[in-house]
Amino acid sequence: MASEEEKQRYVDCVNRAMEAFQGSTIDDFQVHFDLDSKYKCDIDRWVDFVIQKGVKRLAIDLCVYAGRTYPGNVYNFPPLCNSSALQRTLLLLRVLKLKNVNVSGAVIEYFISACTCLEKLTIRRSSSQDLVHLNVTGGQSHCLKKVKVFDCQHLKRICLSATNLLSFKYRGWIIDISYANVPNLVQVFLGGRYLDFGAYLPQLSKYVFQLQTLTLNVPVLEDEEYMGPLAIPVLTNLKNLTLRVFAYNSETLRAFTSLMKAFPSLNRLAVQFTNMFDRVKSRRERTLRKSSLRCLKEVELVGFVGRTLEMEFATFLIENAVMLEKIIIDPIPHRFVGSRAAYLKKRMQTSRECAMRLGSKFSLGDKLVLRNLSSI
């Protein structure tokens, strides 16, 4: 966390840059520093200045070093006045990213409505009590293509009705997400501590039949044995599926066998195991029920270290994917940073041995691709 002296030096530096700026327009303005509501007057002035200059890319992240936010001390993004001069400059805005900033639904919706050239919108960690319902709307004249909403504390509902929207990403508590008019939406990311397939997938199946790529972030895994079979609607056109899974070796990926049945056209599957510090110890393997994976050609197992639940699921995929052309095994976890590389190296040998065991058992030959294991 930055000290008060460091914060003040940063603010003074930005203020001097503002005073010295002589240009007529600003292409890119980014603030990435640990600042709070104490500096609201300065930040408000920066926002007003760059918007008047017709900024094209505006990114504000005020919790880079702290790593978490404190709702009572977070900067509140100011309401925008509805003037003709402001509307003319907002027409130039193409990218808006607000992270660790309290922003109301009304302000976000004003940006979406007024900024017809806005292509990318990111809202992350807003604890504003005025961000409860969010309407993302836009007709043919609006350019909005990508929307990302992560970890907004009080958000209860998102309604998507944007003709040109291509990608939507949401992570947080279970909320109501409706898809009213999204004919071009082909990529969706859904995540949260307790991801409820039953809450989200029926809407996708009913209104986003053209969906091609789906990513599900599942930090806490529920077993079908205890929660019952999953009732999952069919997504006929889905070609690419990514499962980001946190699971202990004592658990099983049995729940995902039902998930596979819902995607009859699935061509590529990536499973990213995120629990890299679970101990690798053997247990009795469980047989996962069979499921027809007629179109699955490529499988990628990331963070694979040969735990029993990983071997179970790899076996399930190999046995059921009759058209399988390639299975990639990579021991490096998703978004791994190298500070713990020494710890990971100890497990790479196990990963290679288990991968080779799969290759031998199922005669995979050239279908088996070892990534980040060639140096062992």
Automatic annotation (TrEMBL):
InterPro entries documented for this protein: At1g61320/At1g61330-like, LRR_At1g61320_AtMIF1, LRR_dom_sf
Domain At1g61320/AtMIF1 LRR: 90-335
Pfam family, one: LRR_At1g61320_AtMIF1
Domain of life: Eukaryota
UniProt xrefs under SUPFAM superfamilies: RNI-like
Protein name: At1g61320/AtMIF1 LRR domain-containing protein
Taxonomic source organism: Tripterygium wilfordii (Thunder God vine)
